[in-house]
């Protein structure tokens, strides 16, 4: 019987983690400036390459082959079935979108719960929500909130 793994989440510094990603990206030729998703062939190879063994028993973990270069803001979106995000870009900074439930279609790929997509600053993209709708969490190095004004909260808001 093997000894239990020793778990220490503090083995690498933040900068060493970025260097690890850069080495993997260079090794597998991921092109900068393009949208990349968890369904891309290169992302699957990178997922295996960026596997993290330093986890407690019963867990699996890997680094995404992307990173955000500046402070970021988090958002949650709930989208109706068939809704389309028209072609647009986030000019201020990079972003990453995680599919929590449902699905979206991007360039012929269906991204479902657990999938992600990285959107570099200024990269134009669009997607269509799948038949069951979608819940997404995203982190952008910009603010796509629209107006600076806050909404008034009424009795029907929950």
Write down the CATH class of the largest domain: Mainly Beta
The CATH superfamily of the largest domain bears the name Jelly Rolls
**What's the overall average pLDDT, rounded?**
88
Fraction of helical residues: 10-25%
Distance between the termini: 52 Å
- What is the tally of beta strands? 9
Explained architecture:
There is one protein chain. The chain has 158 residues and is an alpha+beta fold. It folds into two domains: 14-62, no CATH class; 73-140, Jelly Rolls (Sandwich), CATH 2.60.120.10. The protein has helices at residues 14-28, 41-49; strands at 36-37, 51-52, 61-62, 73-79, 84-88, 95-106, 109-112, 116-119, 125-140. Strands 1, 4, 5, 6, 7, 8 and 9 form a seven-stranded antiparallel β-sheet that branches. It has a two-stranded antiparallel ribbon with strand order 2-3. Strand 6 and strand 7 (109-112) form a beta hairpin. The mean pLDDT is 88.
Write the topology of this structure:
Layout: H1 14-28, E1 36-37, H2 41-49, E2 51-52, E3 61-62, E4 73-79, E5 84-88, E6 95-106, E7 109-112, E8 116-119, E9 125-140
Antiparallel strand pairs: 1-8, 2-3, 4-9, 5-9, 6-7, 6-8, 6-9
Give a quick summary of the entry.
With 158 residues, this protein is α+β, with helices and mostly antiparallel strands. The chain has two helices and nine strands; from the N terminus they run αβαββββββββ.
